[in-house]
Amino acid sequence: PETKRKAKPKRHARPATKTKADRPAATPRKPGWLIELNSLCRHSRLELEEIPRPSQLSGIVPYLRQAGRLNRRLNDRALALVRRSGNATVANQFHELFDRDEAAVQRMLTLAEKGQYQQLARFAQSLVPLARAENRMLMRLGAVDCTVLPDDYRL
């Protein structure tokens, strides 16, 4: 006598449980001060773009005054955020660079007020190494939205 057997349901192989080593490494969260610094830079760049670039030499002085005020405000706020990182050495290096940066903007304004436009254009180009130094430090921190292009110094 034949006995009918019920077909057993097919069992599917259970996927192996992933171990921590199998999982991709979680992207480390950026610290709050760095997120704020990048945001500050994005907003400041937009503010700077809203300042009309002068089409004539007579417009350089008001432009530099307005851009200089924005630059000082950005530097002050950025420095405060970098200080929050707890890295006093980097904060002091930024403080030094920002002081040089602000002095350079003041020098440009003085040259423009005196009508020394050729010297102003040459001086503006001489600031590219300063911008690159700031960029290198910002990139090392992860402040990728804070870099300045050399074209930003072209008048």
Describe the protein:
61% of the residues lie in helices and 0% in strands. It has helices at 32-50, 60-84, 88-113, 117-126, 128-141. Helix 1 (32-50) runs antiparallel to helix 2 (60-84). The longest helix has 26 residues, at 88-113. The relative contact order is 0.12. The mean pLDDT is 85.
Write the SSE topology.
Blueprint: H1 32-50, H2 60-84, H3 88-113, H4 117-126, H5 128-141
Helix pairs in contact: 1-2, 2-3, 3-4, 3-5
Tags for this entry?
155 residues; mainly alpha; 61% helix; elongated
- Looking at how many chains there are and whether they match, the oligomeric state comes to single chain
Rough outline: elongated
End-to-end gap:
102 Å
Low-confidence stretches: none
Rg over CA atoms, rounded to whole Å, is 28 Å
Query: Which class do the helix and strand fractions yield?
Result: mainly alpha
The fraction of residues in strands falls at: under 5%
Most strands sheet = none
Average of the residue pLDDT scores:
85
* Individual helix count: 5
Give the strand tally. 0
Fraction of helical residues:
55-70%
SSE order, one letter for each helix or strand: HHHHH
What's this model, at a glance?
Helices cover 61% and strands 0% of the residues.
